[in-house]
Design a protein that fits this description.
Layout (H helix, E strand, L loop, with lengths): L1 H8 L4 H7 L6 H27 L4 H47 L4 H11 L4 H12 L4 H10 L4 H16 L3 H56 L5 H25 L6
Helix pairs in contact: 1-3, 3-4, 3-10, 4-5, 4-8, 4-9, 5-6, 6-7, 7-8, 8-9, 9-10
């Protein structure tokens, strides 16, 4: 258990990140899980390669894939946080405007939070979390502050901070929230324009890295091996194919994660 604790200590902010990703494991427990998962998958890949090749070189697959898989699962928290953030941002503008309408209609703040939770399951769950904390005896200020800590969306944090500030000063919440929501809309428009400019270069880079370079590289390698009398065995090609497949999967994930969230 000590080794898991040491690794978790080297990961800055891992406890907060786990909460933001809705993962309720302790940091050392999460490190233990991803180490076990990476080892299991690496062993499975090694076994598959060995069954196809019956070569001791199949151990190379496990040695190569274990650190890659471990780092991937380590980044899974950040990927999940980003996914949750996008899901929140897809709802936050309409959820914020719905909240404004509720309050301007004279609905009490707590009931407005509950109505937002019913209408918007992702962004609204954080408003419902505030209500639950208050019902359990936490003050409104502490409940909002605690929810802000586990909220990955900066837009939602701004809204919660504005609600907290207005409740303290007695200022009009609706006008302040309208300013924040208008700014969020402008940020989404800018993000869409920037994504459109990056998409074509990213597609070209994907074709180069995942298709053109591997195919031409393998062809040139086979030709050179033929002229130089090198013995290239099947395990080598299997490892290369697995690496290319992993690179393609990771690159497609990057393209998908770069797509900006749009309120729909």
């Amino acid at each position: 258990m000590e080794i898991y604790r040491r690794i978790s200590r080297e990961l800055p902010g891992i406890k907060t990140k786990l909460r933001q990703a809705s993962i309720y494991d302790e940091p050392e427990e999460y490190v233990k899980k991803i180490l076990f998962t990476a080892a299991t998958l690496s062993g499975g890949i090694t076994l598959v390669v060995f069954l196809f090749t019956f070569s001791p070189w199949s151990l190379l697959a496990g040695i190569v894939f274990f650190p890659v898989l471990f780092m991937y699962f380590l980044k899974y928290v950040d990927l999940k946080i980003e996914r949750i953030k996008k899901e929140i941002d897809q709802e936050i503008i309409f959820a914020g405007r719905y909240l404004i309408i509720e309050m301007e209609s004279g609905v009490p703040l707590y009931e407005s939070f509950e109505n937002v939770k019913k209408s918007y399951p992702i962004a609204g769950s954080y408003f419902g979390d505030i209500v639950d904390r208050v019902y359990l005896g936490t003050s409104l200020e502490d409940a909002i502050n605690e929810t802000m800590l586990i909220t990955p969306s900066s837009n939602l944090r701004k809204i919660l901070w504005q609600i907290l500030n207005s409740s303290k000063t007695g200022a009009n919440i609706s006008s302040s929230l309208n300013v924040i929501l208008d700014q969020a809309v402008r940020e989404q428009q800018i993000a869409v324009n920037e994504y459109g400019k990056r998409l074509n270069p990213m597609a070209m880079f994907y074709m180069m890295i995942s298709i053109i370079i591997p195919s031409l590289g393998i062809t040139m390698l086979v030709i050179l091996a033929t002229f130089m009398g090198l013995n290239i065995t099947m395990p080598f090609f299997i490892v290369i194919a697995l690496l290319v497949g992993l690179i393609q999967f990771m690159f497609l994930s990057m393209i998908k994660s770069a797509r900006p969230p749009i309120s729909t």
